[in-house]
Amino acid sequence: MDNEKRKEQLRTMFSKVVDPLGYKFSPDEELVGFLLEQEVNIEKEKGSPFCPCQGLTGEREHDMKLVCPCIPFHREHYDAMRRCWCGLYVHKDVEDPDSLMQISLKEFRESKNKN
Amino acid sequence: MKQEDNWIFALKADELDNGEKKPLLIEGNKVLVLKVGDDFFAMSNKCPHMECPLSKGTLEQYVIKCPCHDWRFDVREGKFLDAEEIRVPIYETKVMEEGVFVNLSMEGAGK
Amino acid sequence: MKKVVMYTLSTCPWCMRAKKFFREHDIPFEYTDYDKADDKTKEAIKEDCLAHGSEMSFPFVKIDDEVVVGYNPDKYATLLDL
């Protein structure tokens, strides 16, 4: 299957998954196209469309939580950023994705403990 | 149409033991019928993540784990355990005269 | 000058943006793509990342002894006194 076709399939499947979670694909089409392209290549190489911005460890329990969309397994952290780590998805009300920063898990936990 | 007309024969009740499951094609729909304890459950056989066949996953008590990426669902309500907003469509079942019947017209919205 | 060392992924656009940031500011840096590294290097990077914040998120940027996980130009600039 060619990459463009698979990208469209992933887009269709994943939009159904993220919609009930309050997320949508980023309005940054260029970024979305690039990330989906990476996921298609990763899927060809490793069998699953893992997050292009998080590293696999080889332990199934860890790695399966990085298959896109990985929002369910990082909900609180991503909700705080209003985006997922790689930025493929953003909260539905986000129109300017460039305004959203990546906050590391460590920072997120520290700020949570302070409040 | 009367409601009883919507019940479709799925399989014989003695075809499944506790903890067993069987994929079926019912009126063009991929349906998974499972038995836990004495109860029968029916759900879509397609994982809502990437449409993998749940029939190839593992069933432990009321939880079925997708073979592809380990997403876990409660077979009673179809809820995804890690985010309840995501559900597998589930269908009502009833046993009549040794047969298990499924009602595809009434998708259970979680009881 | 402070030393900049990065762990990156070849598939990650934020890693690319981080590299671009340092290039544009004429800051020399070293980087290793975790996904392309040999097993031994991978293991070392994994240990480093997990020890810092129990996550495998990239880019992982070390500026001398300070670590910034993620693309955060403001933080890079502060740490480099830009």
TrEMBL record, chain A:
A Pfam entry, by short name: FeThRed_B
Molecular function as annotated in GO: oxidoreductase activity, acting on iron-sulfur proteins as donors
Gene3D superfamilies xref list: Ferredoxin thioredoxin reductase catalytic beta subunit
Membrane-spanning intervals of the chain: none
Name the UniProt record assigns to this protein: Ferredoxin-thioredoxin reductase, catalytic subunit
Organism: Methanolobus vulcani
UniProtKB/TrEMBL annotation, chain B:
Matching PROSITE patterns: RIESKE
Residues of the Rieske domain: 8-102
CDD domains per UniProt: Rieske (cd03467)
UniProt entry tagged with the keyword Cytoplasm: no
Domain of life: Archaea
MF-aspect GO terms: 2 iron, 2 sulfur cluster binding; dioxygenase activity; metal ion binding
Keywords linked to the UniProt accession: 2Fe-2S, Dioxygenase, Iron, Iron-sulfur, Metal-binding, Oxidoreductase
Pfam families: Rieske
InterPro entries named among the record's database cross-references: Rieske_2Fe-2S, Rieske_2Fe-2S_sf
The protein's required cofactors: [2Fe-2S] cluster
Protein name: 3-phenylpropionate/trans-cinnamate dioxygenase ferredoxin subunit
Organism: Methanolobus vulcani
TrEMBL record, chain C:
Domain (Glutaredoxin) ranges: 4-68
Domain of life where this protein originates: Archaea
PROSITE patterns recorded: GLUTAREDOXIN_2
Signal peptide region: none
Name the record gives this protein: Glutaredoxin
Organism: Methanolobus vulcani
